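Appendix C reproduces, verbatim, an entry submitted by the partner laboratory led by Prof. M.T., so that reviewers can inspect both the input and the predicted structure.
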Amino acid sequence: MERAKKPAAIPVSPIQPTPQVSISDDSSRVTASLPTGERVEILLYGATVISWKSANGKENLFLSSKASLDGSKAVRGGIPIVFPVFGPPKPDHATSRLPQHGFARISRWEYLGKSSSESSTLPNSKGDASVKLDFGLSDSMIDSRNWEYSFNLTYSVTLSQDKLETSLVVRNTGASNYDFQVLFHSYLAVDDITKITISGLEEAAFIDKTQGAKEVEPAREPISIGSETDRVYTLPSEKAITIAEKGLPRYEITRDVLSDVVVWNPWTEKAKSMADFGPEDGYKGMVCVEAGSVSVWNTLEPGDTWEGGQRIKTL
């Protein structure tokens, strides 16, 4: 006997594809991809982002063909993390026993896990489909003879449909305050370095490290690169920076808390002098535009936390 009124079928929503995260067989790297095709790969050595691809497969980061990916030395390319010192340490500072650019980029980090959400870690981010990967490093994981302070670092890499976000949280877990500097050493891929311009730094004075750290007045015009370039600009973190190629915008960088921007390209002779830089003319296909806090020391009191980050958007 059939019922006069059958219950209505409950509609079933189709299963939506979700971001995928995988760990390599040798546990040396973590890869994440979005259903739309974007992809990011992070080496646990240094928590270095070594690849970031758009949905069409285009690579957005330069990675030297001679880069060491076996944990034997810092990676040449991608996005190495500079912490707690930028450049060679000063002999009279607490970081004096550390290697150039500190220990973060030459330490093995722990993968803490992933989260997929409608928002990213930094306060000014707009909601969008993304996957966030977290990595951790603490004082128990490094040689404390070189840096005696207690700390905990949480590094987050957030992949979205048109951008990559990196942020670092520094916690002082000890009883003494300490100074630090931080920088995201981003190697951006370009087709021809002679065809790019960098806008957003026109009104900022800079330190030119190719001229003995000479302080130079603002250029009042977009930057173009035709020789070795190594500059440290200081400007408000709310100022966006745009990299254009052949007159067309390619990347936009926005920053949280980070008031310095380093612009670097080794050019011909310096590229030849670096054993891990390749191909020899690879300088033509990259430019470093690096968000950081390096012109002064950041002081962190016991129990305090500092956070800063960047977003690189493809245009």
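The first strand starts at residue 20 and ends at 23. Additional entries are available on request from the coordinating office.
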